[in-house]
Amino acid sequence: MTAPGTPIAVITGASSGIGAATARQLAAAGYRVVLTARRKDRIEELAAEINEAGHQATAYALDVTDRTAVDEFATAFQTLAVLVNNAGGALGADPVATGDPADWRQMYEVNVIGTLHMTQALLPALTASGDGTVVVLSSTAGHSTYEGGAGYVVAKNGARVLAETLRLEIVGTPVRVIEIAPGMVKTDEFATTRFRGDTEKAAKVYAGVTEPLTADDVADTITWACTRPPHVNIDLLVVRPRAQASNTKVHRDL
Fold first, then answer.
1. What DSSP string runs through 134-183?
2. Contact 135, 157 (CB under 8 A)
3. pTM of the entire predicted model
4. Are 5 and 81 in contact (CB under 8 A)?
5. What angle do CA 8, 27, 109 make, to 5 degrees?
6. What phi, psi does 214 have (nearest 5°)?
7. 141: which of 81, 93, 179, 185 is 20 to 30 A away, CA to CA?
8. What is the tens place of the pLDDT at every residue in 57-76?
9. What whole-number distance in Å separates Cα of residue 41 and Cα of residue 184?
10. How far is CA 166 from CA 119, 171, 185, in A?
């Protein structure tokens, strides 16, 4: 799976959005990228695109909530430079009083347990590299709550605390832990998935915001953090569009 001397980066949730953009940018930065997601066709197409551009990419269909599959995947790596825990997402925008526990459970499984599975399984290879990096994609939702977002806020708080705790526990080892917390990012699928395909509701999230963040903006941030000198750890980087001062304060031209 690897070429000697080429650092390897594993990206979860690489089939679209921030994950796909990160795969492209890390590949351009000189990493051999391993693309994981459940949608095999999507990551195979992206891997072909990256390889055709003269970089190195491999696709591997994987559900991060399946620990057996994750452990099997991890056997392919003796050393690993970067793990980007990007797989996640939101479901619904219901208040606590009426939120669906199944939605909460699914969000927690992907955003937190999936990150735990991948990090546990690949931490030995990251350590063996002598210069490993774990990236956890949290969200500004993990730092400040908002009405109608409690299930997602809980999940992203879990991801945030996982990163903070891991950093404390592995200090002194050659592995960095970086948390990237994006604010309002407009991608093809995030809001549409959250509202179960209701494109009208999804569009309202970004209504009047002329320049929300793009997937490429966040990927650029991830790539920058990963390519700092080995002794430099970007503990936390919060990135929002200029129009967004907080989760509940957004300038809209309406």
1. EEEE--GGGTS--TT-HHHHHHHHHHHHHHHHHHHHTTTSSEEEEEEEE-
2. no
3. 0.95
4. no
5. 65
6. -110, 165
7. 81
8. 999 999 999 999 999 999 99
9. 28
10. 9, 8, 26
